[in-house]
Amino acid sequence: MEIILQTLVDGLVVGAFYSLIALGYTMVYGIIKLLNFAHGDLYMLGAFIGFSLLSWLTGDGASAAGLLGIGVVFLLSMLLVGLVGMGVERLAYRPLLTAPRLSILITAIGVSLFLEYGTMIIWSPNVFVYPVQLPQTGWQVMGATITYTQVGLIAVSCLLMYALNLFIHRTIYGKAMRAIALDQTACQLMGIDVHRVIALTFFIGGSLAAGAGVMAGAYYGTINFLMGFIIGLKAFTAAVLGGIGSIPGAMLGGFVLGMFETVGTFWIGGSWKDVVAFSLLILILVLKPTGIMGEKVTERM
Amino acid sequence: MNKLFRKCLAVSLLLSLVLSGCGNAGQSTDSAAGGDSGNSSSGSEQIVIGFLGPMTGNNATDGKDMLNAVEMAVRKVNEAGGVNGKQIKVEVADDGCDPQMATSAANKLVSLNVVAVVGGYCSGSTLPASGVFENAGIPLVVTAANSSKLPEQGYQTLFLINGLVPDQAKTAMEYAMKKNAKNIALIHDNSAYAKDLADSAKAVVEQAGGKVIAYEAINPEEKDFSALVTKLKSLAPDAVYFTGYYAAGGLLVKQFRQKEVPGMFIVGDGSFSEDLIEIAGPENAEGVLISATPTAEFIEGAEAFVDEYKKTYGIAPGPFSALTYNGVNLLVDALKRAGAAEKEAVRVALKETKDFQALGQTITFNEQNTMDTSNFAVLQVELGTFKLAE
User: Measured in Å, how far apart are chain B's first and last C-alpha atoms?
Assistant: First the structure.
């Protein structure tokens, strides 16, 4: 019983990270049909910017910044990486918006490598230890350890996702996003500033990924410049799993993937983690290519 | 549109595979950390030796320590007038602890006409590199990598001055079993060295009547090992032996402590680094055991080396710096005895090494070009630093 509960909670935490990143994938795909492979690296960049801000704030970790400090750094990193996301869109993707999809996909991979090795040059290839780490105390529930941090992480993720949902469904920009996803040309004809809305999408996606990056840094404790690659692929898997283009799908996909991975690794063994994740991807593509919540996509096509 | 999406997906999956394969290869360029600037105009006045080690990637910290030791040794030799009147120049090749990168790094050194090579940190990348050097007839003095697969290749050009994996496994497991550990869990990270060490440990434990209750592998790129930790907690091991490198090792220690898994935690020498304590957090790392070749601080007679290293680089010498320092000095000695900077002569001189006095070890090679006596010991983390256990 304790094992089942423990695995569930651990899976939820992993899933929360996947969901946050998957949202960026799915939003960008939904709006301009681009699989943004640089997205995982925005997560990594968020972790690094958060690391530098925290180091600066705490004076090399001498004094703890406290929860408020982490909160400020968290929001600042989200803002900065959101801007980087917009910059990437402006410089690398916008000129190719009307080009064949393959060109823009390859550009995305270029951007990904650029971000990874740019980070390596700026911060060096070493493994960095986060200056502030979240507390590891918590409750003992039927033998399983559930820390405040884990609950906090899941809560913050859910809060961010809820806010995004409100934004998409209740604001004029959200409406514009949904409209552009349906028909970009028509939106342009109706006087919607399409580029601005696309830039906003990149901003939101980037900042969500950065938020996940800072949280992962503070939770696991270490960051390195290649950390975005694998998690980017996983988040992409989560997005496809949930039905790419669908926002609730990305959230669900992330949690399902995280859960499957943790349970799968528990049963089969640690080195099978990625195999489990990608087998799930293949299965879903064969059985239900639109993903779990993919109806919206077919409707849009 | 659906068709388009599937095409995109297929292409992207393919590309991602390609990317994951070559992600590291892109950085195989010469590191900025290169050795002496040297005066290339007087090529005949110099003896060029190579250094092979990770300058980038997860193990770059240890690689840098090794390079520092190489530069320190070479600077001393050059200041004392060089070898047979010639100055030594070091060419650095970055293997990134990646087999593909190591092969191209080795080829780079071959094309630079180095007379011998010192280094080799990860066994997984030293294995293919040693083949390249064997084909070119260039002697390789391995100062850190210690998989038993290295001497098993039977190469005449390969010399190992570090103890071998089976010796380490024996040291670690005998220590654990002496402390009444019967049920032992082994974890490796699927690298050649770590798997080799875990296999050796398994053999030692089973032979001594202990029980291996779990034999697990992790992916070193992961950050979340919660499933594995939960599983081991339910098995209640007396000791856990992790044989991989410190980046994953530190995280494992931390997550094991957070979930309060019982038993000793032992790591192999790939995790012997200050970074392990920093990553795990000093309070979590307290009491962690390490099976390793002791660092310079623990070697009698190496005080001068430690002082000079600290003065020059402002940090404590890493786990393999003393061994690497020994490797360069051994090579210099062989160069002197060989008389000529010619690779076959150097190889023969290395083979004929007899009772060479180095820091903490006396070097004489046996049939397999390895050491007869292992220098492994068990260390323990105490108040954030390493101490010899017992």
Answer: 69
Torsion of CA B135, B137, B140, B145, to 10 degrees: 20
| Planar angle of CA B4, A167, A52, nearest 5 degrees | 90
Q: Please name the residues between 33 and 62 in chain A that touch chain B, using a CB distance below 8 Å.
A: 33, 35, 37
Picking from B2, B4, B5 by the largest number of A CB atoms within 10 A of its own CB, the best residue to mutate is B5
Parts of chain B with a pLDDT under 70 = 1-44, 390
pLDDT greater than 80 at residue A243: yes
CB pairs under 8 A between A and B: 137
Q: Comparing A49-58, A290-299, B123-132, B186-195, which segment has the lowest mean pLDDT?
A: A290-299
What's the pTM value of the predicted model, to 2 decimals?
0.78
State whether ipTM is beyond 0.85. no
Asked if residue B191 lies in contact with residue B245, where contact means CB atoms within 8 angstroms, the answer is yes
Gap between the Cα atoms of A127 and B58, Å rounded = 6
H helices present in A91-147, as ranges:
101-123
Taking a C-beta distance cutoff of 8 angstroms, is the pair B317, B61 a contact? no
Helix (H, G, I), strand (E, B) or coil at B82: coil
Q: What span, in angstroms and rounded, lies between the C-alpha atoms of B385 and B334?
A: 36
For residue A113, list chain B residues with Cβ-Cβ distance below 8 A.
19, 26
Tokens representing B376 are 């492994």
Residue B155 CA to residue B152 CA, distance in Å, equals 8
Q: Which residue has the tokens 């910017």?
A: A49
Mean pLDDT value across residues A173-177: 92
In this prediction, residue A272 carries a pLDDT of: 83
For residue range A261-279, what is the model confidence (pLDDT) as tens digits? Answer: 999 888 887 778 888 889 9
CB contact under 8 A, A105 and B12: yes
Distance from CA of A126 to the nearest CA of B (A): 6
CA distance A243 to A30: 10
* Closest Cα in chain B to A36: B12
- State yes or no: pLDDT of A71 exceeds 80: yes
User: Under a CB-based contact definition with an 8 Å cutoff, are residues B359 and B322 in contact?
Assistant: yes
Residues 6+ apart with CB under 8 A from B52: B93, B95, B102, B105, B106, B109, B117, B118, B119, B120, B126, B129, B140
- Mean pLDDT across chain A, nearest whole number? 88
pLDDT at A204 over 60: yes
Q: Smallest Cα–Cα separation from B197: which of B94, B97, B290?
A: B290
Closest CA to B118 of B147, B81, B89: B89
Amino acid A11: pLDDT: 92
Question: How far is residue B248 from each of residues A126, A221, B221, B245, B277, measured CA to CA in Å?
Answer: 13, 11, 8, 6, 12
Q: Of B16, B226, B247, which has the smallest distance from its Cβ to A127's Cβ?
A: B247
